[in-house]
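Design review, sub-item: ligand-bound model
Attendees: FS, YL, KQ
YL presented the inputs for the magnesium ion complex:
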Amino acid sequence: MPANLTPQYHSAEKRYRDAKEVDEKIAALQEMMAVMPRHKGTDHLYAGLRAKVAKLGQESERKLATARRAGFYIRSEGAGQVVLVGPANVGKSQVLAMLTSASPEVAMYSYTTRTLLPGMMTFENIKIQLVDTPPLGHRDVRILLSSVLHGADVIAIVLDLGEDPVAQLDWTLTQLEECRVVPTSYDPQEKSETVIYRKKMLVIGNKLDLPGASRHLRDLEKRCDGLFQIAKVSATEGDELEWLPSEIFQSMDIIRVHTKAPGQKPDRSDPVILTKGSNVGQAATAIHKDIRKSLRYAVVWGSGKFEAQTVSKEHILQDGDIVEFHL
Ligand SMILES: Nc1nc2c(ncn2[C@@H]2O[C@H](COP(=O)(O)OP(=O)(O)O)[C@@H](O)[C@H]2O)c(=O)[nH]1
Ligand SMILES: [Mg+2]
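KQ shared the predicted structure:
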């Protein structure tokens, strides 16, 4: 029986044949399966594709396990993981050194940073993990970075305001795309189908102290308008550095919620971290699913119309809220 495969199927099949990486192959196969007509004549073909996906999936898992053993993977700690990326010499390592107790090598010449280095940054009552990386541009670096980028909560693109930052940004975005990472602010339709990972991104304009930096910053602001949040800083001079932890926190789209049982005091030192837009029910689940199950109502300080307002599970929480669960 003729399978009547569509042009879309054939183009996905071509991508499958051309793909070099396992993840790309899997994505192409999955598309072939999604667009193929399903009837008796295609059952065999469909089963064959499914078996291929399963086999490649195992291969991908094995590769990831190897990457983890080789140290190409940094376990996320604290409220989330922010990966610093960019061209050489923009000050990624300097930013890490200023915001955390990690001591990366900082130098005038390129390619000082050869591997991944994590450090913990304090923002008010939470800790956020920053990861320093070697400069993008080389295939080896892309291999080293891909799994880290795919797992990151936010990708912070560090740029040198002493030189044309718009060119640096465009170059960095192209490099990230090579790692199959695109910003969430991009319209998915305009991107090729092989790109899989959509990431929140923050732009850090560094070296604010250099001549021409203010002019370059204005160009960068024009380019980023509506697409990326920009933080400006001089990591060596310390200018504006006190705002950077807060800007990084904002870019993560998370909130800190203090939960408590009736009659207890909230523990402000160890908030529950939730994604922005989470409700009381989700805060309960984050503590324990049984609390969510037996939850009758909650009392909220902060985002209620008035303090100690009684709310339902659907009440949307804000950063800094205190929630008391009534079971
Ligand atoms: N003027 C100036 N120089 C900086 C600043 N931040 C970093 N640098 C210098 O830029 C060079 C590269 O910094 P580094 O952190 O190693 O860059 P990386 O390659 O992106 O990690 C070093 O000589 C730093 O001292 C800054 O804010 N202002
Ligand atoms: Mg470095």
